[in-house]
Amino acid sequence: MTRDYSHRLGKKKVKFVRKDGTPVTGKDIEVKMYCHEFLFGTGLFDVIPYVCGEMKPEEEEAFEKIFRKWIELFNNATFPFYWQRFEPERGKPRIEQTLKAADWLKQQNVVIKGHPLCWHTLTAPWLNEMSNEEIVKEQVKRIHRDVKAFKGVIDIWDVVNEAVIMPVFDKYDNGITRICKEMGRVKLLKTMFEAAREENDSAELLINDFNLSSSYEILIDGCLNAGVPIDEIGLQTHQHQGYMGEERLLEILERYEQFQKPLHFTEITLTSGHIMPPHIVDLNDYKIDDWPTTPEFEDRQAREFTEMYEILFSHPLVRTAVSWNFVDGGWLNAPGGLLRKDGSVKPAYEALYELIHKKWWTDTKTATDENGEAVIEGYRGDYNLICCGNKVNLALRNREEKETEIFVI
Q: CB of 38 within 8 A of CB of 8?
């Protein structure tokens, strides 16, 4: 099927002049893209202990090999802010370590999203000792603290995660389910989103959920009508029980485009092993020691990733596609990565590389005219322009920008 990617293209006129103001005429320009505007990524939790020197030498070596493959493909990382692990002891959050790793990635043109600020699972167990009123205050304080601490480094946040199930979650007692039962979903979301907005008025604030039924649509609609400052919508698609297919994916896109908000596919899983049995309701209940990847299923995984990413990239509202695990054996021990456990590349990695860095990539040449001008066209993102031995940076962001950008060389 032919898909339309024209909305992903940008166009801008540039002009090269010398220091005395005369135009640089008839000179070649190399146009070299180095980063997409669209966010392609994965969860990248291990970068924190790596940057902070918390790994053993052999673990560092293994991570470095994995990261080299990661950075060749992706420009977006999801960082863990699970409260139970981020602040296991009250008053001692891992801000310094996480910020150090985030800074390291940002210097390599990686955009980072924090996940999540409020979630009933993996929340701080010490909340259980508090009253509901105290829990609300502590949760709001946590959001203020973390959004402020990471402002300018992490400006995209999953503010509330899995709110549809939050007040009825019954696996174990936790403070966030308690306050959601008392406050109701919309009031809880409004409280948490407003706290995040107060600390960073330019942040991109997401609601995120795995429940993509009408219940999620109703919740989003209720929140927007109540003035909750939701900027973007996160859609989880863990497909351990089989690829949803084009028809189902297009149906999801059609339903959520009604809100005219950017859509983030925040947690994509497609396995290269056997499919989880369909009778499993909660994916967490499927616990097996060995879930192997196989050549046959790896080819299937590559085909599924290709189709899914082509569909997402062709939709104007989709901004992000995140494959949840980069290496096999992550969540649920599933072979859902783009690398095998030994770090070797799977066909799915190669398939995504072909899309992201070849099919949807712009490296070209042009030349200045008699006025020193040239029109730069390509996939939206960040570019190096090389003219007369000088390298300048160009951000291509719009279908067509009216103002000419002038470079003095």
A: yes
